[in-house]
Every structure is written in C-alpha cells, then in structure tokens.
Amino acid sequence: MTEVAFDERGLVPAIVQDAATGAVLMLAYMDREALDATLRTKEVHFHSRSRGRLWKKGETSGNVMHLVELAPDCDADALLVKVHPAGPACHTGEATCFGPVNAPDLGRFLSELAALLRQRRRDLPAGSYSAELFEGGADAIATKLVEEAAETAAALRGEGRDRVLSELTDLLYVMLVLATHLELTADEVRASLEEKRRQGPARRARREAR
Fold first, then answer.
1. How many CB atoms lie within 10 A of CB 126?
2. Residue span of the structural domain in which 187 resides
3. What is the CATH number of the domain that holds 176?
4. Nearest-10 Cα torsion for 26, 29, 35, 37
5. Residues 138 and 181 sit within 8 Å (Cβ to Cβ)
6. β-pairing verdict for 79-85 and 12-18
7. Greater confidence, 54 or 114?
C-alpha cells in the first residue's frame, strides 16, 4: 500500500463505507498503530482522540466492522475503508453517523450477515451451523449448495410462493457462506455481473447463430 501521509499529530482521516451498500457510515481517525491493527486483524481500529488510545470499533457495543478493503486517496492523506458492519455504525443506534440512510434495507441486512459469517468462520463457535459448514470446507458447502438449489427448484415447480421464498433465502444464505469461504468481495461480485451484462449481446448472437 502507498505510504500514508499522517498529519503533524500522527493521524489520518478514515472514511468508512459499507462495502455492500455503498453507504458512508462514519468518519474517524487512524494513527499508525490503528492502521497496523486493522490490517493485521481485519477488524477496523481507530485512534480515539478523546481517550488518546487505540480503539477497536465495537469493542463495547459488539458492532465490529470487518475490513473488506482499505485504500488511500490520491494524496495518501485520507483513507477509504470498506467494511461489512456487524451492526449500527453510530453510538445513537443509527446505521450511519450521518443519520438514516436511504440504502435498501436488504442491502444493509446482507452486509451485516456477511459480517456475522466472517465472525463464524474466524471463531468457529460450538453449536453454529455456519461454523460446521466452514469446518467442512468446500465439500460440505458444495453439498449444501446442491441440496438447497434442488429444494428451491422443486418448490418452484409446485409448492407455492411462500415455500419458494423460504427455500430461496436458504439458498442465498449458503451462497453467502460460499462467498465468505472464498473471501470474495462485493466489488468482485459486481465486476463479474457487469462483465456478464457487457457480454450479453455477443452471447445472444452466438445462440441465435446456432
């Protein structure tokens, strides 16, 4: 990473953004210790100016932020920190420190679920089904993925809308487990979808030429 230009106090502003929804969550400051701790643990740390010490976001509330990507701006005197938040970013209980967000509720929920899955993969708590899948690795996840896809297809063929919705969300959950297992980022998923959309006309032309 480009060498960060800390100010005379040894600090650099860090703009925190939800990696899934794009919502700007908060502005805080990092010093070298906080930056190193964030990169090492993959959980966001800041420098608390009021307390004069290292501060792990969520250390008391539990609303930790799981690092997805961290990059300096063009002058390296500010940082963009993309995260999956485990809960509200603001101490007021709001999703962001800038008040209510207009991001879709589903996007925020999926981002929080992605954060929870990262915790499950790291801690592997007893009794957690997600932890069981992570411990089983690719084979266990693939087996569950095939099972849920088949059940979703079966529901679509004649079990009613509510049943389809239930099976679809089970399938979506396993897909998120898979994405967490592979450490896929939201940017990678979006880029793949954009590439498929770009190739759409050519793929249609090939089908029609057969």
1. 7
2. 124-209
3. 1.10.287.1080
4. -80
5. yes
6. parallel
7. 54
Strands laid side by side in the 24-30 sheet: 24-30, 12-18, 79-85, 65-72
Burial status of residue 144 (CB atoms within 10 A of its CB: 0-12, 13-18, 19 or more): buried
Does residue 106 belong to any structural domain of this protein? no
Say yes or no: 81 and 132 in one domain. Answer: no
Cβ proximity of 15 and 101 under 8 Å: no
Residue 42 contacts residue 54 (beta carbons within 8 Å):
no
Euclidean distance between CA atoms 125 and 161, whole angstroms:
34
DSSP state of 43: B
Task: Say what angle helices 105-123 and 161-182 make with each other, to 10 degrees.
Answer: 50
Q: How many residues does the chain have?
A: 210
- The CATH number covering residue 80 comes to 3.10.20.810
Higher-scoring residue by pLDDT: 207, 119: 119
Q: What is the pLDDT of residues 114-138, one digit of tens each?
A: 888 988 998 999 999 999 999 999 9
Cβ–Cβ < 8 Å for 116, 103: no
Res 210: pLDDT: 67
Residue 160 belongs to a domain = yes
The predicted pLDDT at position 155 comes to: 96
Mean pLDDT score of the chain = 90
Q: What is the pLDDT of residue 20?
A: 79
- CA separation for the pair 103, 27 (Å, rounded): 18
* Residues 187, 201: Cα–Cα separation, whole Å: 23
What does the pLDDT read at residue 87? 84
pLDDT tens digits, one per residue of 152-169:
999 999 999 999 999 999
